[in-house]
């Protein structure tokens, strides 16, 4: 299969960023848009949705809680109705929680799994067909150290969900590769932004990163751009850490 056209060609390639209202999701959407992609974003929060509409246009911003059955399919259908194709999906959805394992309730575990894994599975089902047709790419988000299965004192529920997502991503990558589709994951460390959890923005913590600082947003979004580009046409089922050596 030939490599997909470069985003700079006509017509532009189309990417859907799920969870594009804030943080890395919004940074990714901005970066891809600036690189010539046609970008659609799914934003659950109404206030953030209005802000995104100013940046990307009303027809490119879609509401919906992806934990609700059918919501992901509705978003994908809206993208196809507007642009007729879907070349890439970036799944940047998923709640984060800091809580000791013994203090985490079953409902809190369920919320981590539904938000991080359930939404990804719904997206896979909804967008599998059009991304196959485009010979496109998927990017999911994990977290630093995920492949090394290190125990965590206060993020057990969150890490268990991301570990499940990693396993699902690799199974999905194996299935989709024969269709010319590339599926990968990016695992950031600390990326300061306005919506970051308070326990992730400590300067003392950032100083402990082997490279000596937290990541810049453009360093993470640049990795996303590469993974969805023709330059990464032979990269399949990989978990790329952008973490400055954190959790090595």
Helix content: 40-55%
Round the Cα radius of gyration to an integer and report it: 17 Å
Tally of strands = 7
Order of helices and strands: EHEHEHEHEHEHHE
**Spatial separation of the terminal alpha carbons:** 37 Å
Low-confidence stretches: 1-5
Q: Report the mean per-residue pLDDT as an integer.
A: 90
Structural class: alpha/beta
Strand order of the largest sheet: 3-2-1-4-5-6-7
Beta content comes to: 5-15%
Overall form: globular
Number of helices: 7
Largest sheet: 7 strands, parallel
Please, could you describe this protein's structure?
The protein has 7 helices and 7 strands; from the N terminus they run E-H-E-H-E-H-E-H-E-H-E-H-H-E. It has helices at residues 23-34, 46-56, 71-83, 106-134, 156-177, 203-207, 217-227; strands spanning 14-18, 38-42, 61-62, 88-91, 137-141, 182-188, 239-242. It has a 7-stranded parallel beta sheet, sandwiched between helices. Strand 1, helix 1 and strand 2 form a beta-alpha-beta unit. The radius of gyration is 17 Å and the shape is globular. Mean pLDDT is 90; it is low at 1-5.
Give the key terms.
248 residues, alpha/beta, 7-stranded parallel β-sheet, disordered N terminus
How do the helices and strands line up, and which of them pair or pack?
Blueprint: E1 14-18, H1 23-34, E2 38-42, H2 46-56, E3 61-62, H3 71-83, E4 88-91, H4 106-134, E5 137-141, H5 156-177, E6 182-188, H6 203-207, H7 217-227, E7 239-242
Parallel strand pairs: 1-2, 1-4, 2-3, 4-5, 5-6, 6-7
Helix pairs in contact: 1-7, 3-4, 4-5
């Amino acid at each position: 299969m030939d490599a997909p056209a470069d985003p700079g060609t006509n017509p532009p390639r189309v990417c859907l960023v799920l969870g594009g209202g804030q943080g890395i999701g919004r940074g990714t959407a901005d970066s891809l848009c600036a690189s010539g992609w046609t970008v659609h974003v799914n934003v659950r929060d109404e206030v953030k949705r209005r802000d995104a509409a100013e940046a990307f246009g009303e027809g490119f911003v879609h509401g919906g809680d992806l934990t609700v059955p059918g919501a992901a399919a509705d978003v994908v259908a809206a993208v196809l109705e507007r642009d007729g194709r879907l070349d890439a999906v970036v799944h940047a959805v998923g709640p984060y929680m800091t809580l000791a394992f013994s203090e985490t309730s079953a409902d809190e575990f369920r919320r981590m799994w539904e938000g991080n894994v359930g939404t990804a599975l719904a997206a896979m089902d909804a967008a599998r067909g059009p991304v196959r047709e485009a010979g496109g790419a998927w990017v999911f988000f994990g977290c630093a150290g995920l492949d090394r299965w290190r125990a965590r004192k206060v993020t057990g529920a969150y890490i268990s969900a991301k570990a499940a997502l990693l396993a699902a991503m690799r199974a999905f990558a194996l299935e989709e590769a024969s269709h010319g589709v590339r599926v990968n994951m990016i695992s950031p460390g600390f990326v300061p932004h306005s919506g970051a959890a308070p326990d992730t923005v400590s300067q003392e913590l950032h100083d402990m990163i082997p490279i000596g600082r937290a990541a810049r947003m453009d360093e993470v979004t640049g990795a996303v751009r590469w993974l969805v580009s023709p330059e990464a046409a032979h990269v399949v089922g990989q978990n790329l850490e952008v973490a400055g050596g954190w959790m090595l």
